[in-house]
Amino acid sequence: MKTLKNRLKTDIKPCYLVEGDDYFLYEKALSMIKRETKLELEDFNFLVFDDENFSMKAVLDSCEVMPMGSEIKVVVIKNAVKVSDSDIKHLENYLANPVPSTVLVILDFYDKFVSIRNKTEFVDAKRMDRPLATSIIVSELKKRNKQISGEAVETLLDYCNGFLSRAMNELDKLCFYDTSSLLITKQIVEKLVHKESDYIVFELTEALGKRDSEKALLLLSQMAKEQGVLALITNHFRRLFFISISDADNLKLASLLGVKEYAIKKQKEQLKNFSKMQLKKIYALLEEIDYKIKCGDMLAENALYYLVFSILYM
Fold first, then answer.
1. Torsion of CA 228, 229, 230, 232, to 10 degrees
2. What is the pLDDT of residues 163-211, one digit of tens each?
């Protein structure tokens, strides 16, 4: 993503594959590609196939048709889920001899096109590192005659679990909260921005690892009435256990566990708070709780508190 703008100015490729977990960057990449291709008459020359209308035959037929009133046409596959091996094979055949006047853009949030990455111009849309994400937020706020403190932007990215897409969506609310002041403070972010569930689970795991019972119970009270919280915590600790006993790199672990690489990176940071033996005991505890819930011996809400107190005093 960092070099896409320069690459587009040098040479426009027949196919771009965008993969990662931050959807703001997908839209940014597509916007840059459209701008640099100098796309005209979008009604005729900009075609989007999402999971509702996706068919590889329709996509490739569209790629074969010459643009109308424009030098280039752009065809987009957007987050298709129902992609078969046959679809991939047909796409590979097309990419061996693509139509020069067509730019195919694949927005692949679900990683269905990983196998053809080396046959495309790959664009990495994974969550940006903090300095770069911060600079984008600061730049956007400058356009709105607003500033944000260092603590505030860190808190904003934390609450949004590192997703620039979510953080950018919060800016309108933050800008209009206090029009008499230029500065967005940490207190304003804490008041207005709702924490992502995954981030709260991350915070809770940190608190449990550090035996901070006060913070753990505060976070638990915020989460207890939300649906699916126990499953989130269970999945988090199961992944933590498997990460602790594996020698695989982040990319391989992400593939094995069905999560994004960023999630593995963040969870590895928490390993310092738990021994392998503790994680093994927690894993066994999760199995016990799951069994008791299925047997009707324990309510899910009670199970949440049982789990947290058991870990605190393990």
1. 90
2. 888 899 899 999 999 888 999 999 999 999 988 777 888 888 888 988 8
Number of neighbours of residue 285 by Cβ within 10 angstroms: 17
First-to-last C-alpha distance (Å) of the chain: 44
192 neighbors 176 (Cβ within 8 angstroms): no
DSSP, res 247: -
Length of the chain: 314
Averaged pLDDT for residues 241-252: 89
pTM: 0.65
Distance in angstroms (rounded) separating the CA atoms of residues 207 and 90: 50
**Spatial distance between the Cα atoms of 193 and 212, rounded to a whole number of angstroms:** 24
Q: What CA–CA distance (Å, rounded) separates 247 from 224?
A: 34
Rounded to whole angstroms, how far apart are CA atoms 131 and 126?
Answer: 14
**Residues paired with residue 105 on neighbouring β-strands, in sequence order:** 16, 76
Q: Is 179 helix (H, G, I), strand (E, B) or coil?
A: coil
Token output for 247: 């020698």
| pLDDT class of 60 with cuts at 50, 70, 90 | very high
Determine the angle formed by the axes of helices 261-268 and 250-257, rounding to 10 degrees. Answer: 110
- Residue 49: beta bridge partners? 77
- Phi, psi dihedrals of residue 75, rounded to the nearest 5°: -115, 130
